Amino acid sequence: MLHHIGSMPIREIIYHKKPEFTLGTEPHYDPTSLTVLHQDSVSGLQVLVDNEWYSIRQNFNAFVVNIGNTFMAVSNGRYKICLHRAVVNNKTTRKSLAFFIYPDKDKVVSPPTELVDYNNPRLYPDFTGPALLEFTKKHHRADTNNLHAFSMWLQDKNVEA
Ligand SMILES: O=C(O)CCC(=O)C(=O)O
Ligand SMILES: [Fe+2]
């Protein structure tokens, strides 16, 4: 289900219970700037740290804030994306509200000059939100070179244009 508040979509995700271990979402990075998640009292969200999956303790009174690829690019790599997935519970249906924050469509994503210097060269080229979304839809990459792959794709696209 997709609701819109201004240009910012909120999605209600319902994971119906399944008897066997099933993935609700494949491991992925969010293309957003930030994703704000509100989870009900059923656990299911997991993050990959040092090659191990850890469950995020569910807390109805808290939000989980995920850094997306756009934020990683705008911070010139200082803030890191985190691979995550949702697993389906075998006893209870789980509900999660996801609030996806994207840059305005026509804004160029570029890090502030303060974050770029000799020791911290530009990691990613300028891009727009819609270009990153197009890439994410076409190539669902869940590896740490996600933004690098996007940069290469963007270059090829610009050469073609
Ligand atoms: O259901 C969740 O808690 C996570 C959903 C998610 O990662 C996403 O929609 O990008
Ligand atoms: Fe996600």
TrEMBL record:
SUPFAM superfamilies: Clavaminate synthase-like
InterPro entries reported in the protein's UniProt record: IPNS-like_FE2OG_OXY, IPNS-like_sf, Iron_ascorbate_oxido_reductase, Oxoglu/Fe-dep_dioxygenase_dom
Domain Fe2OG dioxygenase, residue spans: 6-103
Transmembrane intervals: none
Any one Pfam family match given in the protein's UniProt record, by short name: 2OG-FeII_Oxy
Family matches, as PANTHER family: 2-OXOGLUTARATE (2OG) AND FE(II)-DEPENDENT OXYGENASE SUPERFAMILY PROTEIN-RELATED (PTHR47990)
Identification of the protein by name: Fe2OG dioxygenase domain-containing protein
Species this chain originates from: Solanum verrucosum
